[in-house]
């Protein structure tokens, strides 16, 4: 289905499918510090991260007002900070089997919450005061913040062999920039994590999960990596939605809701067309639009797609699509409820447009 309007090229497609589940991750926002550690000057390399942790009350100072940034973080302290940063409810009646963790322990509820979620392993002993190693922290962070773990990673360390139990956790976390090696090719898995280092790791984890929550990155299950999914122009995309809804109103149809998750899928498709130099509904890498939506965990009962290129403005895009019977049909399809619009720019400054439609 190919139609030209001047130099404008557009294509449309529809599909019906069955629904499935979608999961989204949540995170927290940065707040001003309410507590200041007397032993962490503003010149300290981790000062901002530590003050962030204190301000959000994810971590605390000791009774004497010190933070002890160079002291190894304990298992109990780490569990408490992670549970608080995840904003978990602490009212569960779950009780672990640990014989060395009394119910009146300072961080008992936080530890229980993580054990109940499977982030910490239940057993006879928790060893709450034991320090944590870098390899142990890597596993805790990936499980806590839902970082995808796989064996296909760019990060490699000479002291982490293929058989190491934490290899995939470490490399996957390093790939997204949350953890780093002590040297370019050395990870030092058995090195203890200090409280200052832990504060920075938590902050980086929250920053990354916030990007996932805001649809700025997505995990690509084909390439086994996270990819950026920032739209070229949200303003232009929003204008397309506004103009489309005007057309639907003229035809006495309900407006389409702008769907951030569907827009992310549209961004991936637009970027894919630019990166792989094609202009079709069928991606040579991801397949059909509904295959792409399924791959990135987007739920729908029906799906449609309009694409275009060499279109300079939102007004021109909507005008071109409305002039084409197949595109117009997608725009005015009664059962569609949601839409997502994305634009990508190629090296010559040409725009590739993708509008996806779905019913929920």
Automatic annotation (TrEMBL):
InterPro entries assigned: CAP_dom, CAP_sf, Cell_Envelope_Struct_Comp, SLH_dom
Q: Does the keyword Signal apply?
A: yes
Answer yes or no on keyword Signal: yes
Identify the residues that the record assigns to the SLH domain, covering every copy.
33-96, 97-151, 153-216
Q: What Pfam families does its record include?
A: CAP, SLH
Gene3D superfamilies the UniProt entry points to: CAP
Keywords for this protein: Signal
Which residues does UniProt assign to the signal peptide? 1-21
**Name of the protein this chain belongs to:** Uncharacterized protein YkwD
Source organism (scientific name): Lysinibacillus parviboronicapiens
């Amino acid at each position: 289905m190919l139609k030209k309007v001047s130099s404008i090229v557009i294509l449309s497609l529809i599909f019906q499918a069955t629904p499935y589940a979608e999961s989204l991750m949540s995170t927290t926002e940065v707040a001003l510090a309410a507590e200041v550690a007397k032993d962490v000057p503003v010149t300290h390399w981790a000062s901002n991260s530590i003050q962030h942790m204190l301000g959000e009350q994810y971590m605390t100072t000791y009774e004497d007002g010190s933070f002890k940034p160079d002291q190894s973080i304990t298992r109990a302290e780490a569990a408490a900070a992670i549970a608080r940063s995840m904003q978990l409810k602490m009212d569960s009646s779950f009780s672990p089997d640990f014989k060395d963790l009394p119910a009146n322990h300072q961080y008992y509820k936080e530890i229980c919450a993580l054990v109940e979620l499977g982030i910490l392993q239940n057993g006879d002993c928790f060893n709450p005061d034991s320090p944590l190693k870098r390899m142990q922290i890597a596993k805790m962070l990936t499980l806590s913040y839902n970082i995808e773990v796989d064996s296909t990673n760019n990060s490699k360390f000479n002291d982490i062999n293929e058989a190491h139990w934490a290899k995939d956790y470490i490399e996957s976390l390093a790939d997204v920039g949350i953890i780093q090696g002590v040297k370019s090719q050395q990870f030092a898995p058995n090195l203890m994590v200090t409280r200052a280092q832990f504060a920075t790791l938590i902050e980086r984890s929250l920053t990354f999960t916030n990007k996932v929550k805001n649809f700025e990155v997505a995990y690509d299950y084909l390439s086994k990596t996270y990819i950026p999914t920032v739209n070229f122009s949200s303003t232009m995309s929003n204008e397309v939605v506004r103009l489309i809804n005007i057309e639907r109103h003229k035809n006495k149809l309900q407006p389409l809701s702008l769907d951030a998750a569907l827009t992310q899928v549209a961004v991936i498709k637009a970027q894919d067309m630019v990166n792989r130099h094609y202009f079709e509904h069928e991606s040579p890498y991801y397949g059909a639009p509904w295959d792409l939506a399924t791959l990135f965990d987007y739920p729908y009962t029906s799906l449609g797609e309009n694409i275009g290129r060499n279109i300079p403005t939102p007004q021109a895009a909507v005008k071109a699509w409305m002039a084409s019977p197949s595109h117009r049909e997608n725009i005015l399809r009664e059962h569609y409820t949601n839409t997502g619009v994305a634009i990508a720019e190629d090296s010559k400054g040409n725009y590739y447009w993708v509008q996806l439609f779905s019913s929920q």
